[in-house]
Write a structure and sequence with these properties.
By secondary structure, the protein is mainly alpha-helical. The chain folds into 2 domains: 79-155 and 171-502, no CATH class; 509-573 and 624-725, Transcription Regulator spoIIAA (2-Layer Sandwich), CATH 3.30.750.24. 62% of the residues lie in helices and 4% in strands. The chain is built from 33 helices and 8 strands. A 6-stranded mixed beta sheet has the order 4-3-5-6-7-8. A two-stranded antiparallel sheet has the order 1-2. The protein starts with a helix and ends in a 16-residue tail after the last helix. The chain crosses the membrane at residues 99-125, 132-152, 185-206, 213-231, 251-275, 287-308, 339-364, 376-400, 412-433, 440-457, 477-502.
């Protein structure tokens, strides 16, 4: 027998017994004494905030420069080899992905290498994750490219104004670089400001279904953007709504002009990469490190292209010029900010969301913590400073991060080593890759999309587990696919927030019953053993009560419990109306009998009878009629229904209640009270009690007696109240004291 079974048997055989009074809210708080909380003087708070101690300075440095915390604790014997292998493996991925993602960003390939160098070095100092690989990412690059193509379309420069095609292409690329730098700077400023203002929680609004649906749609965008490079056709690049449709139709329309040589080279690399990745996955436990298939494909493709002169002989598009050296810093054009601020916000949020998601996965796996606010600051610094050195927006690359972690990387020194390899290419050997066919880069990008396309398998999972999350996934995918990534993301966030409102507006309402001989109360419709107490209904809601669901709450209360005070009141009015008619018909002949001979003598009596008739003709209140009507007469006309004397509202799952909700609960107390049904509130949290107090729910002090510490306290309180009421009803009326009658003659 294992420990789990032993624990289950032990728990099942243990019992406990508690003897205590029934606690209403006043009774419980009458025995409690609140702690006196003396607020610190404002002067002490300011002094403490402005104080400068060595510990405080050290914490600030550790928070803003995490490298100062983990670098002194670096263990060379344990970490060096893993970081070295990981750095080399990640570096050889940076090269082809940097070149390929620059194509997605609509900028010359060399700028992809710049984006693979500067941000990686900066993140090493400011980032809190030890395993993510920072640099160009397909989704972010595609979003950058969408902005650049929208503001600088091909028609603006290429083939227009009488300029030759080469000069037009160079001018177009220079302008697109300027747009990309502006977007990068603005997105970096946004990320940095959000981090300083401690807005790292914004990532929670990008739920996992939303992120996965968004990245899947982005994968489709990337795939369609890469088709023209794989087929070797020249088409206009589209951006904005339905760009994926236009791009696909453009490739299909020009399929007759495809370059056979380019397609063959691309498919060969595609087969090599796909088969090699399956080999790496199958034998990952036996291989010391994954085979760097991307760099192998780059070397083979470059060798074949240079050896057979594919560019001149077969018109195969190649990477082209890769100038050696680093560019001097330059200030991005801030005059473009008003044209790109929406895209910058989307890029900033998506980049942070992807990074923090991967960082948290690795942090949980390896037992350390990441700070979302510091990650925002780190990404903001990478993008802001990087934009000065002609980099475009970066984020965490999923494929590179998995390689960096799986090959033994322990710290961001692996990323620094990878960036040094990119620096070597930029300064010395970049020209060797000028003959690399673009079809090879296209194949590399498409193969790396496999993980994103596998996210389509989420659909059956969400279908089984949550239709709401399935709706978020599908709407995010469809909106991002057809409206574009920027407007698609905005639409997805709005839909995700609407689902939150829907969840609270349409919560689960449950009628509870007692598990016999316990203080456990659970759904009466779910279990056969659960029983209801006679005359008591227990109603539970699993959401806050606020303006969006308060009316639905009161309607569900009457519907689920079967006790509708409006119907009871209507039936009672009908009974009283019939009873009033009976009283009127009985009194009518008596009031009409008048003797002529006694008319003058009985004038006063006639006047009294007429007043009595007029009084009976007036509309009478419910309470006055009830007081004049015997119960057996009411029961003669009332329809059969549940004999409920107490309604208990379980607030254990209500985390807040607003002013509209308080008015609704007050109305429930009045409506049910008018028909003789008590309403108790059970298991209210301190927050709910504070909300009720602030909204003057306890303006009548007697209302506090309706609050109980738990459901069981409320049930016992209702039973005690009914028992006392029955005793009073059965007790004989008190005898009036009378003096003995004496005979005056005796």
């Amino acid at each position: 027998m294992d420990h789990t079974q032993e624990n289950e048997i032990l728990v099942a055989t243990q019992t406990y017994s508690v003897e205590r009074p029934i606690y209403s809210y006043p009774a419980l708080h009458g025995k409690l004494h609140k702690k006196d909380k003396v607020p610190d003087p404002i002067g002490d708070k300011i002094k403490r905030a402005l104080s400068c101690t060595p510990k405080k300075i050290r914490n600030i440095i550790y928070m803003f420069l995490p490298i100062c915390k983990w670098l002194p604790a670096y263990k060379p014997r344990e970490y060096v080899f893993g970081d070295f292998v990981s750095g080399i493996s990640t570096g050889v991925l940076h090269l082809p992905q940097g070149l390929a993602f620059a194509m997605l960003a609509a900028v010359p390939p060399i700028f992809g290498l710049y984006s693979s160098f500067y941000p990686v070095i900066l993140y090493c100092f400011f980032g809190t994750s030890r395993h993510v690989s920072i640099g160009p990412f397909a989704v972010i690059s595609l979003m950058i490219g969408g902005v650049a193509v929208r503001l600088v379309p091909d028609d603006m420069y290429v083939g227009g104004g009488g300029a030759n095609s080469t000069n037009g292409t160079e001018e177009r690329d220079a302008m697109r670089v300027k747009v990309a730098m502006s977007v990068t700077l603005l997105s970096g400023i946004i990320q940095f400001c959000l981090g300083v203002l401690r807005f790292g929680f914004v990532a929670i609004y990008l739920t996992e279904p939303l992120v996965r649906g968004f990245t899947t749609a982005a994968a489709v965008h990337v795939f369609t953007s890469m088709l023209k490079y794989l087929f070797g056709v020249k088409t206009k690049r589209h951006s904005g709504p339905f760009s994926v449709v236009y791009s696909t139709l453009a490739v299909i329309a020009n399929v007759k002009k495809l370059n056979i040589c380019s397609l063959v080279v691309g498919l060969m690399c595609f087969a090599l990469l796909l088969g090699g990745k399956e080999f790496n996955e199958r034998f990952k436990n036996k291989l010391p490190a994954p085979i760097p298939l991307e760099i192998v494909a780059v070397i083979i493709g470059t060798g074949i292209s240079a050896g057979f002169n594919l560019e001149e002989s077969y018109k195969v598009d190649v990477v082209g010029s890769l100038p050696l050296g680093l560019l001097a810093p330059a200030t991005p054009d801030s005059s473009l900010f008003h044209l790109v601020y929406v895209d910058a916000i989307a890029i900033a949020i998506v980049g942070f969301s992807v990074t923090i998601s991967m960082a948290k996965i690795f942090a949980v796996k390896h037992g350390y913590q990441v700070d979302g606010n510091q990650e925002l600051i780190a990404l903001g610094i990478c993008n802001t400073i990087g934009s000065l050195f002609q980099t475009f927006s970066i984020s965490c690359s999923l494929s590179r991060s998995l390689v960096q972690e799986s090959t033994g990387g322990n710290t961001q020194l692996a990323g620094c080593l990878a960036s040094l390899l990119i620096l070597l290419v930029i300064l010395a050997i970049g020209f060797l890759f000028e003959s690399l066919p673009q079809a090879v880069l296209s194949a590399i990008v498409i193969v790396n999309l496999k993980g994103m396309f596998m996210q389509f398998s989420d659909l059956p999972f969400f279908w089984r587990t949550s239709k709401i999350e399935l709706t978020i996934w599908l709407t995010t995918f469809v909106s991002s696919l057809f409206l574009g990534l920027d407007y698609g993301l905005i639409t997805a966030v709005i839909i995700a927030l609407m689902t939150v409102i829907y969840r609270t507006q349409s919560p689960t309402y449950t009628v509870l019953g007692q598990l016999p001989n316990t203080d456990v109360y659970i759904d009466i419709d779910a279990y056969e053993e659960v029983r209801e107490h006679a005359g008591i209904k227990i109603f539970q809601i699993n959401a806050p009560i606020y303006y969006a669901n308060s009316d639905l709450y009161s309607n569900a209360l009457s519907r689920k419990t079967g006790v509708n005070p409006a119907l009871i009141m209507a039936a009672r009015r009908k009974v009283l109306k019939k009873h009033a008619k009976e009283l009127g018909t009985k009194g009518k002949p008596q009031s009409s009998v008048v003797k002529d001979e006694d008319a003058e003598a009985g004038g006063e009596e006639d006047a009294k009878q007429e007043e009595q008739i007029e009084e009976n003709a007036k509309p009478m209140t419910i309470d006055s009629l009830v007081q004049k009507t015997f119960p057996e007469e009411l029961e003669r006309f009332l329809p059969p229904g549940p004999n409920v004397h107490t309604m208990i509202l379980d607030f254990s799952q209500v985390n807040f209640i607003d002013s509209v909700g308080v008015k609704t609960v007050s109305g429930i107390l009045k409506e049910y009270g008018d028909v003789g049904i008590y309403v108790y509130l059970a298991a209210c949290s301190a927050q709910v009690v504070n909300d009720l107090t602030r909204n003057r729910f306890f303006e009548n002090p007697c209302v506090k007696e309706l609050l109980f510490h738990s459901i069981h306290d409320a049930v016992l309180g209702a039973k005690v109240r009914e028992a006392l009421a029955q005793q009073e009803a059965l007790a004989p009326p008190p005898e009036e004291d009378s003096e003995p009658i004496t005979d005056p003659e005796t």
